[in-house]
């Protein structure tokens, strides 16, 4: 089984590494891609820390070597899609190629796991209309603007929300439960 994971510079470190390792434990091949980059190219991750200010701060995370070339992916080879958060959704939501990938998985009703700011990409792709989902609280307006119903969980809870083929969560503390529900959607 193959899963596609969208990524880009300043992806949330935990939301990249943890799904890869957890899915690998189940013998699932995770293909990590980034627009305009090739297998072997490096992206920079970020750690977002809540440390008492009005918003979170950002620190560099681990560099990550992409596993696959964006231009070479064949969507019909994948059983599901993972859309992490961090800052990369802010700029990739303007990339029609990324939005088309997301639409493909929703059009085919395939399992999609989106977390934190990753819901910005789903909103921009227009796939949230008539759906409910969770996201980082700062993305609430993105969900609503995209036609979705925002499910309000405390940002650092372990709560997740499942609506059909979509499993969503507000942030990385929910990763374990989020992945468990995604794995159920994959029927593993």
UniProtKB/TrEMBL annotation:
Coiled coil region boundaries: none
Species assigned in the record: Coemansia interrupta
Domain DJ-1/PfpI: 1-184
Gene3D superfamilies for the chain: 3.40.50.880
One Pfam match: DJ-1_PfpI
Domain of life according to the entry: Eukaryota
Name by which UniProt lists this protein: DJ-1/PfpI domain-containing protein
Family: Belongs to the peptidase C56 family.
């Amino acid at each position: 089984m193959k899963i596609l994971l969208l990524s880009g510079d300043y992806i949330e470190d935990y939301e990249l590494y943890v799904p890869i390792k957890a899915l690998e434990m189940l013998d699932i091949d995770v293909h990590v891609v980034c627009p305009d980059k090739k297998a072997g190219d490096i992206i920079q991750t970020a750690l977002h820390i809540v440390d008492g200010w009005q918003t979170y701060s950002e620190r560099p995370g681990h560099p990550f070597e992409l596993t696959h070339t964006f231009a070479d992916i064949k969507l019909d080879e994948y059983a599901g899609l993972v859309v992490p958060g961090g800052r990369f959704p802010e700029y990739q939501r303007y990339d029609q190629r990324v939005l088309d990938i997301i639409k493909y998985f929703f059009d085919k009703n395939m399992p999609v796991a989106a977390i934190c700011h990753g819901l910005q990409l789903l909103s921009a792709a227009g796939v949230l209309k008539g759906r409910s989902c969770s996201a980082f609280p700062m993305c609430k307006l993105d969900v609503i603007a995209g036609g979705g119903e925002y499910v309000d969980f405390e940002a650092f809870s372990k709560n997740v929300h499942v609506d059909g083929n979509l499993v969503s969560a507000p942030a990385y503390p929910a990763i374990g439960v989020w992945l468990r529900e995604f794995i159920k959607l994959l029927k593993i």
